[in-house]
């Protein structure tokens, strides 16, 4: 049997008519989207549980224990609201010549470029956030938000017509 030569340079292999996708979002999205909400929620939930479960005679506070418990519960509820309105909306975004691929790390959705109205960059909490606006609401809503990665600047220069 003859030994086949396997090419080591894969750049020249046929792509079957498909362009290569580019990662537009930052790799830090996984940290902000998964780790920060879960770690913060578990920590604050433990703190709130401690305030609610400890007997008021065993806990010395310079303020009445009811006030401390109310502040702990309101802080926990505020954290959950803030996470759901900001960080939890971040997605991972990839793009190729024909589609925009959006994932929340559990579900991936493909949007054709005809469904994208525009995109904009905004500064939120000291970080740049990019919003893609869809013509109609999709699986993840009408606005897709993500933290731009290193490939986003080059992609933006090549696709100025979209903006």
Per-chain topology:
Layout lengths: L21 E2 L5 H25 L11 H21 L6 E4 L3 E5 L4 E5 L3 E9 L2 E12 L2 E6 L3 H9 L5
Antiparallel strand pairs: 1-2, 2-3, 3-4, 5-6, 6-7
Please write the string of helix (H) and strand (E) elements.
EHHEEEEEEH
Q: Over the alpha carbons, how many angstroms does the gyration radius reach?
A: 23 Å
What is the end-to-end distance? 57 Å
Strand order of the largest sheet: 1-2-3-4
Strand content: 25-35%
What is the number of strand segments? Answer: 7
**Fraction of residues in H or I helices:** 25-40%
Low-pLDDT ranges: none
Helical stretch tally: 3
Explain what you see.
By secondary structure, this protein is an alpha+beta fold. It contains three helices and seven strands; from the N terminus they run βααββββββα. The chain has helices at residues 29-53, 65-85, 150-158; strands spanning 22-23, 92-95, 99-103, 108-112, 116-124, 127-138, 141-146. Strands 1-2-3-4 form a four-stranded antiparallel sheet, covered by helices on one side. Strands 5-6-7 form a three-stranded antiparallel sheet, with no helix packed on it. It is elongated. The model has no long low-confidence stretch (mean pLDDT 86).
